[in-house]
Structures are given as C-alpha cells and as structure tokens.
Amino acid sequence: MSKRSWLACGAAIATLCLGVSTAQAQDDILVGLITKTDTNPFFVKMREGASEKAKELGVKFQAFAGKFDGDNDTQVQAVENLIAAGAKGILIVASDTKAIVPTIQKARDAGLLVIALDTPLEPMDAAQATFATDNFHAGELIGEWARRSMGDEAASKAHVAFIDAHESQPTVDVARDQGFMKGFGIDIKDPARRGDEDDARIVGHEMGEGSEVGGRNGMETLLQKNFDVNVVYTINEPTAAGAWEALKAAGKADGSVLVTSVDGGCPGVKNVADGVIGATSMQFPLLMASLGVEAIVEHAKNGTVPAPSEGLTFTNTGVKLVTDKPVEGLESITSEEALKICWG
Amino acid sequence: MSSDDTPHFSEHAGPGRRVINFLHGNPTIIPFLVLVIGLAIFSLIVGKRFFHPFNLSLVLQQVTVIGMLALAQTLIILTAGIDLSVGAIMVLSSVAMGQMALTLGLPPEIALLAGIAVGAACGALNGLLITWLRLPPFIVTLGTWSIFNAFVQFWSGGQTIRQQEIAADAAILQWTGTALQLGAWRLTLGSVLMLGLAGLLWYMLNRTAYGRHIYAVGNDPEAARLSGISTRRVLFSVYLIAGAICGLAGWVLIGRIGAVSPLGGGSANLDSITAVVIGGTSLFGGRGSILGTLIGALIVGFFRNGLALAGLDVLWQEFSIGCLIIMAVGFDQWLRRISN
Fold it and tell me: Which of A190, B235, B288, B298 has the most CB atoms around its CB within 10 Å?
C-alpha cells in the first residue's frame, strides 16, 4: 500500500479508538459479583438478582465463580480481573474468608468498593460493607426450635450430630454451628471457634462440604459413632437431603430425628413440606445481591458507603424460620407461606 | 560342555531376589497386606463398632461411587494415560438422566440408557482428542473436565432434582440405592453392580486378547504397534469404555444421594486416581490390576472410617491418605528399578 493509504488507515483507526474511548468514558459503571461456586442455587439466585438489578439501573455486570466451595485461587483471579477491567465495585461471597483479604485490599487500594455478601470476611472490616444474613441468629433459630421441640428431653436425652462444611472453619460455617448450639442450650465457649465445646450431648462434627454426598457420608459416620442420634444440624439444605438418605437407610426416617438446616431455597422448603427437614432458617440472597448492586452504583455516583444495620457490624438482610411444626414462643412461617418467597 | 547343552540362565535366585520377583509378579499383595493390617489396627483401636459387618458393609457402600470411577481410571492408567474428567463425566451423566426423565419427560428407562450413552460420548471425545490429535491425556482431560462441568451447569441450570420427584416419576434411577440384607451384611445394588463390573473387567483384562493389548499398549506402545496391535483403536476404545463406566457411576450416585445434583464430583477424579495408585497400579502404565484398585478403594474408605470413629480430626484422614499414596508410588518405583 502507498504511504498515503497507510496514513489514511492510521487516521481511521485512531479516530475509531478515540471514539470508542470517549464512549467508554461516559459509559456505564461495571459491577462484579464473585460467588463461591455457580452450582449452588443460592449463588445462582444471587447472580440472577444482581444481574436484574444491574440491568434495571443500567450498569454493566460481570459474574465470576470458583470451581468448588473452598476455591480461593479462582476468586483471587476474578478480583484482579475486575480491577483490570476498571470495575467500580465488587460483591463477593468469599470461599476462604481469610485468604482473600490481601487481594481485597488491592481492590480497595485501586478505588473499588468491596461488599461482602453472605459470608463476612475475616476481619470483617476488610470489606467496606457486609450484606448478610445474621448467620449466628439463623443457627440460633433452628437450635431454639430443636430445643423447644424436644421439651424436657433436650437436656437429658439429646444426641446432636453436626454436619458442617469445611475443616478450615469459614465464618459462615462457625457462625451457624455456634448459633445452633447456643439456641439449643450448649455452652459454646469461644463463639469464634468450633470444636472447643465439651457437652456430652454432642455426637460429633463431620465435614460435608455443603453437598448431598458429604451429607450422606457425614451422617453415616455420625450414626456409626452413636446410633441414638436424634437431632441433626446441617450447614445447608443439600447436606440435609444427603443426611436424610442416610437416616432412611438406617431406618430412622420416621420422624424420630429432628433435622435442621439453613438456607430457604425452594427445594429445601419443599423438603420441609415433605418432612425431610424439620426446620430451616430462610435467607434472602436476591435481596443481598440487589442491595449490593444498588450500593455500588450509589458509591460510584456520590461516594457513599452503605451503613450497617442498627447495632450490628453488617447490614442484616433478614432471616425467617420455616417449619411446619411450630413451637410456642418462636415465630415461624409454614412451608406453604415460604414457597411463595423462596429462591431457586 | 556338550553340544546337547542349550544356553540357559542359572536358576539360582537368592531369597531376596525371589521375594522381589514374587512382588513384581503379584503387585497386589502389598495393598492387600496394607488393607489387612489397617483393618487389624482399627479393630484394636476402635473395637466392635469398627469390625462389625454393618460398619464394614457401610464402608463398602461409601466407596462404591469412587470405586466405579476407579475401575474406569484403572483401564486408562494401564495404558499409561490419565483421566481428570471422570468425576465431571459422572455428574454430567447423572444430570442427563435426571433432566431427560423429569424435565424432558422421556421414559425413565430410556433416560437411564441415554445418560450412560452421554458418559460414553464424553469418553469418546477424550479418546478422539488423545488418539486423533495425539494430545497428552493429562492435558486433554484437564480441558474436558472444565468443558463437561460447564455442560453440567448449562443442563441443570444449577438446580437439584429432589429425591421425592425422582421417586415419583423415575424410580428406576434410584434403583442402585436399593438395599440388600444378607445376614448382618447390608449391601446396596449399587455395590453389587460395582463388584459385578469389577469381575467383568477382570475377565476382560486377564482372559481376553483385548485385555492383553491394553497392558501391551501401556507397557510399550511402540513394541505393541510393531507387533500388530492397533494402538489408536485400543486407546480410543479404552476411553470410550471408561466414559460408559462413569455414566454407570452416575446412576449409582443417584442411588446413593437420592437426588440429581450438580454439586459434588469435584474431588472425585483425584479420589479415583488415589484408589488406583494405592492399589498398586503403576502410573507409568503396563502394570496393575482390577483387584488392586478395589483394594485401594477399600483402603481409603476404611482409613477414613476408622480414623473418624477413633475420634480424630478430619485432617488426619487427609494426612494418612497422602502418606499411603507416597508409599504406594515409592514402592512401585522401587520395584521397577530393582527388576531392571
């Protein structure tokens, strides 16, 4: 090509680039959502909620997820990608609440607003705001329910099995576990640590990693430790479903065992209706996500940081006890009512 | 020396050499001994709660799913390959079965067969990429692992199909979870299926020419090719069969957890490799056995179960499994070096 054609091409490309970059300068805010996985319906719902809110507010939205519950590396990369892409804020459900903190600090140093969803970081103020269920309270509700359901026997004849998520004790895991214990009337000693209790009613803790397979394996092992298990705490509803299969196989699916859980997903609520789960604490992931997107947009427009709920260090998105066997003195909704507001 | 004497090796092997030759010919003895010793130790520490038919059969049930994946993995590792996508193929097959039966409304038996066919198709894709494009199995299956996981997400929409829905409309999918009571032993049909499949594969590997070809290709692909074995066809068929076995494992998975769930399966591929390696199959191909894999899977199951019942933290389970793997691979390497 002749020199003039080269110049013409160059000019055209330059104008294009300039045009594009000016367009981008006036362009939308980018909000990023990073969840633990994209398999758990909880996170699927969160992503949908955030995406809808982003569309409603006219901002750009990108979602990332780890490959498995506990996958910190993918989340680190996602944060870095969002920083590079010029995002204005990040909503994150951290898989490893301690290990992600340095990367979060990088994002904050780059001027992004970081909001922790569902799972507080450690330390909690590593994120500028946390929108979460009060997981401790969620655990307390089901623990309280189990205690009142058992009545007098709770003090003497209870054998409680715990199927948690991970050995590494993420905040969500510990909070729900310790909350349950407090609600049930077990002395929790250090509320930040699971496993330091010595109550004789505890059969044991197994790690189910939040899936059905883990729930089944964990329940079987705990039944082997003590076949008289009559109360089961599970970290989430898939774990409870798996634990139920084990109870069924052991011939204990006759209502003699109280199975409790946390989440409030539609499959879980249906399981309450079917008698698989006795009581579950319902969370509101859609609310977490949409409030989060709103907060980032607000911050991008006028720099405001969301304030925590009254008396708490985070913004409480609420929790409701769902059970078809309500107990005196504890507010709850039935599975039928819950089906109207469940997620997933 | 008369002309009648034919040259021959001196048959004089010292006792040490004899032991080594024996081990080389029967590598499964070591994992078997580990299993027996492990059972003995845990029975002493934990007592009757461990060494009771109910608990022992429970462990068998717990290792059944991984055991099936390990059977598939054995075939592949025998050819000096590896498959990181076995877990993903299993979950994809189970999701396929569930979605076809309940969302697409196909008759459950068809959905079941179609799900297994999906597994076989995944295996075929692996086989194609490895034999046709001649890519290393590790890399190929690393990629297909992610691809199949993406399909799991896509097809399931992240949703679990609950146990009650499957029981109502497609009970055959949960068939492998049906329990059999044999005295004090409690087996599931899934475990029986796994043991039956193990028997079938044992027969195939040890009594058919095809089985011999698999060992040959793993031991020395060039020599195998020169002796007339179509290495590409053998490799492709191995991955195809492995995929179908993973599809069957998906059926067993539904029986175990009752539901069709896109969760889980994450560590299944490494767990299957662990069982194969501890069972004495060499990662470098050409040596190993189905029986060894079964023993390897049982060892992992019994160690986890025994340590849990002994009240130890979960992390000690991970620690001991890690030690077992290193010992197994180290032993295999030592055998190889000594026999040369």
Answer: B288
> Is the residue at A314 inside a domain?
no
Give me the domains of chain B, ranges plus CATH numbers: 28-335 (1.10.3470)
Query: Coil, strand or helix: which one is A315?
Result: strand
Q: For residue B69, which residues of chain A lie inside 8 Å, CB to CB?
A: none
Inform me whether the C-beta atom of residue A243 falls under 8 Å from chain B C-beta atoms: no
Beta bridge partners of A205: A162
Beta bridge partners, B240, equal none
A274 touches chain B (CB under 8 A): yes
User: What six digits make up the tokens of B164?
Assistant: 């009650």
Please give the pLDDT value at position B334: 82
* Mutation site, A51, A202, A217, A271, interface B, largest B CB count within 10 A: A217
Altogether, the residues listed in chain B come to a count of 340
C-beta atoms of A270 and B163 within 8 A:
no
Measuring CA to CA, which residue among A256, A255, A258, A252 is closest to residue A280?
A: A258
What ipTM was reported for this prediction? 0.77
Burial class (CB in 10 A: 0-12, 13-18, 19+), B183: exposed
Most B CBs within 10 A among A37, A39, A225, hence the mutation to make, goes to A39
Tell me the mean pLDDT per 10 residues along chain A, length 344: 68 57 56 89 88 93 88 92 93 91 93 92 91 92 95 90 90 92 93 89 92 94 93 95 94 93 92 95 91 93 87 87 94 93 82
Residues in B closer than 8 angstroms to A249, CB to CB, are 177, 179
Give the integer Cα–Cα distance in Å for A280 and A68. Answer: 24
Interchain CB contact of A332 with B (< 8 Å): no
Residue A261 lies in a domain: yes
Enter the pTM of the model.
Answer: 0.81
Q: Which domain holds residue A205?
A: 135-282+319-341
User: Beta strand A279-282 with A320-323: parallel, antiparallel or unpaired?
Assistant: antiparallel
Q: Are residues A147 and A247 in the same domain?
A: yes
Q: Which residues of B touch A239 (CB under 8 A)?
A: none
Residues A277 and A329 in one domain: yes
Place of tokens 């940081």: A305
What does the longest C-alpha to C-alpha distance in chain B come to? Answer: 83
**CB < 8 Å to B253, chain A:** 213
CB pairs under 8 A between A and B: 98
